[in-house]
């Protein structure tokens, strides 16, 4: 139903599994009736995100449900134009940077679910002169992200004082009291790749990823990739502090560095190391036979 109480012009209702180690993609689809009723069948036990979109594209509805045994009935999706997220930009120095303007900071929301449906509509939000921001049209579940084109990067996101940087937020209602902290203390991992015959592997791709599989994912901040430049040196900047593995691969399709199956296969060949906040680490790798 739409938020005005009438039935909305929905076309499809989809169910996407969001629980478990490897959530599936489209796990159920139903065509809504003229009265807005729908039925999804064949769902295995698990936690799902139900989503519905109006044919006009202006209204969206979502809710989470748990399928566990008996059939669920009476599930209601209330359509709206999305939630709003409001917050403020802060800096880990405690002071406002003299060389950075609010308009140079971008703030966005990214989906926690592997879906082609975007979760924010409208133009890019701007940070106001008082360092506050507002994100409109939020929907589903996702993360708040921010950054600049310069050397300031997001350090953490808090909601009411709690760190939610890597915790999916439910955009079912408005979210206030967001605080995005930026830092210039960026980590840097750089080095070279040997081809195993005493030469440089200039065509290699270096993947650096968290040792903890729970930190893998489509939008994970704990995965980075880079290629050697003309001098044979690669550089990956901005990874959060933590424990990592690094591997050099001969060939990699764009985006494959986030494939959990590949990351698991690379774990045994990966070179372990730890990054501290703001640390610069030199790392020389051998080309992996994988």
Structure, explained:
By secondary structure, this protein is an all-beta fold. The chain has one helix and 20 strands. It has one helix at 260-266, and strands at residues 10-17, 26-31, 46-54, 60-67, 83-91, 105-111, 132-138, 141-148, 153-159, 162-163, 169-170, 175-183, 188-194, 205-210, 223-226, 233-237, 242-249, 271-275, 280-282, 285-286. The strands form five sheets. A five-stranded mixed β-sheet has the order 7-5-12-9-10, with no helix packed on it. Strands 2-1-3-4 form a four-stranded antiparallel β-sheet, with no helix packed on it. Strands 13, 16, 19 and 20 form a four-stranded mixed β-sheet that branches. The longest helix has 7 residues, at 260-266. It is globular and about 70 Å long.
